[in-house]
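hey m, so remember when u said the tokens were messed up on ur end? i reran from scratch. heres the input so u can diff it against urs
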Amino acid sequence: MTLLQFEVTSLLKRLMQQIEATRDLRELVDHLEEALHCEGVAIHRLTRPEKLERYRQRKAEALVDFDSTLCEWAYPLMGNPTEGAQEAMEELHDQGWRIVIWTARMDRSIYPLSERLQTKQDIEEWCAEHGIRYDEIDIGNFGKRVAGICIDDKNIHFCGDWGDVLRSAKALRELDNEKFEETEEKTRGGNWDRSWAQGNWDMSCGLDWEDCGGSDYQGRAG
């Protein structure tokens, strides 16, 4: 190796170290920002009674998905409310559930905090426009939350029969692929037609708020 090659190699190594340090710093800043916006996080080791109390509180929560559950599929826009959604949220509230909107739009591995906070504001405005009751919008800081129930177009209820689960999983995978193929076709060229989100393209999952559970729900998701 010549002197010039050695110097270039050393320079590249130092440059890569600086890039890695910058990336680590950015991740640290993101985590600190998220912590500032994360309510209810345990900042110290909880005692067993404190953990049980926190668990009891969480079990009163109903996690409700957004796309194809509260609203018809129109991603990345927001569609109209699914039929019966507004009344269902009122009924859940009357039953004593604390309603938490829990959506993949808040996936922290895809969307930085700034985008998730904007999405939170967008969902708040959408809920206000359509009269949808809720108590919280999760911005993706908790990971998998303890909750009493989860309402989602992709959920598969496990009743001890893995064969039933596998059949449902296959049907959901096929429907999900079809939905995103049509999404790509509709959005090719960047044509985000607002009328798309107003019902001209209906790809809702056919969610029936009168019957959201059990094996008869399999395969109806979008």
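this time it looks ok to me. DSSP finds five helices and four strands in the chain. if urs says something different then somethings off w ur setup not the seq
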